[in-house]
């Protein structure tokens, strides 16, 4: 089967819970081989979209294309090439990690060699795999969930908030694992409400807010939007004095406190020039830093301008 440039694509995907509209005209484009970060605040519609992509919910309108084929027409064949981890993995708590994998492997008629392969892939040691799942930490449960999703050696992985509840080490390990899987040729769609999380691992990003896709593009394109909206924050003794002494350099500045100013960030050179001018004017610099807009700010901005779509 030839691999299309877009491994996953939706057209005009809409969904309602009863009469309540949840998703509006979602056109996702997930390139083959990408790590696609599906980003949005809680309640934006990420999980619902993923359920539609897995055929677990029926859309009110629109289509899902997986591997270039219509999901509605070839559900079973297409989903056999997809591994998913949606919310907490459902495990048999009294069985060991190994037995959990074996139960699913046999049920799905998958080759026996896969169990040790996926354990190795997700980094679960033989010792951990031999313990009952009820003794697992959240990170180990996520790994085992991922191992279960990887059993059929899927081309596409869909992971809903895979780092939720993990400690910082667990988050780093999960990130490394995702990169390793991408290196093995998998395409990964992962959702998160944390832009910092997505930024560290994704190659492509879709931003959803209130059921609408408000941005879609490569990571550099998203970062460009962010950078274009960064601020420069100056902490000094007297904001007003600085403004009076440097009316041109601080023409766009707003005073945010007795000794605090905020102005649009343009470049590193702007920071150097401002620092020099402040020193020359005899004004103390307690702090001078660029500040990215918050996730909420960026989302709000994206919604207002309806960027890129
Ligand atoms: N079973 C349901 N019945 C009615 N409304 C629902 C149901 N499940 C979700 N919703 C609503 O659909 C909207 C989208 O929810 P969804 O879970 O897809 O968002 P999300 O982006 O995944 O957020 P979260 O990370 O909080 O799960 C929310 O407003 C939610 O209240």
UniProtKB/TrEMBL annotation:
Keyword annotations from UniProtKB, A to Z: ATP-binding, Nucleotide-binding, Transport
Boundaries of every ABC transporter domain copy: 8-235
Pfam families given in the database record: ABC_tran
UniProt-listed SMART domains: AAA (SM00382)
Record carries keyword Transport: yes
MF GO annotations: ATP binding; ATP hydrolysis activity
Top-level division of the source organism's lineage: Bacteria
InterPro entries per the UniProt record, alphabetical: AAA+_ATPase, ABC_transporter-like_ATP-bd, ABC_transporter-like_CS, P-loop_NTPase
Keyword field contains Nucleotide-binding: yes
Similarity comment: Belongs to the ABC transporter superfamily.
PANTHER family attached to this UniProt entry: ABC TRANSPORTER, ATP-BINDING PROTEIN (PTHR43335)
Protein name: ATP-binding cassette domain-containing protein
């Amino acid at each position: 089967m030839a691999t299309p440039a877009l491994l996953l694509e939706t057209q005009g995907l809409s969904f309602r819970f009863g009469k309540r509209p949840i998703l509006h005209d979602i056109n996702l484009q997930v390139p083959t081989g990408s790590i696609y970060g599906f980003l949005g605040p809680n309640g934006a519609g990420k999980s619902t979209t993923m359920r539609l992509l897995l055929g677990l919910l029926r859309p009110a309108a629109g289509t899902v294309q997986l591997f270039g084929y219509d999901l509605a027409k070839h559900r079973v064949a297409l989903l056999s090439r997809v591994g998913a981890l949606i919310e907490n993995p459902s495990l048999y708590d009294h069985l060991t990690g190994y037995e959990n994998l074996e139960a699913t492997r046999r049920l799905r008629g998958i080759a026996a060699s896969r169990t040790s392969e996926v354990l190795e892939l997700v980094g679960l040691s033989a010792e951990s795999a031999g313990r009952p799942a009820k003794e697992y930490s959240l990170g180990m449960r996520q790994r085992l969930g991922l191992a279960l999703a990887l059993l059929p050696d899927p081309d596409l992985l869909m992971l809903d908030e895979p780092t939720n509840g993990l400690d910082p080490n667990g988050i780093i390990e999960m990130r490394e694992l995702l990169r390793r899987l991408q290196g093995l040729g998998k395409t990964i769609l992962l959702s998160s409400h944390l832009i910092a999380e997505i930024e560290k691992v994704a190659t492509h990003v879709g931003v959803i807010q209130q059921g609408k896709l408000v941005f879609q593009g490569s990571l550099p394109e998203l970062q460009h939007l962010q950078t274009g909206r960064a601020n420069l924050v100056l902490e000094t003794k007297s904001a007003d004095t600085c403004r009076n002494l440097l009316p041109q350099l601080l023409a766009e500045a707003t005073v945010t406190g007795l000794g605090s100013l905020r102005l649009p960030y343009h470049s590193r050179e702007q920071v150097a020039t401002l620092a020099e001018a402040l020193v020359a004017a005899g004004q103390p610099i307690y702090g001078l830093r660029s500040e990215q807009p918050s996730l909420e700010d960026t989302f709000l901005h994206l919604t207002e301008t309806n960027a890129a779509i």
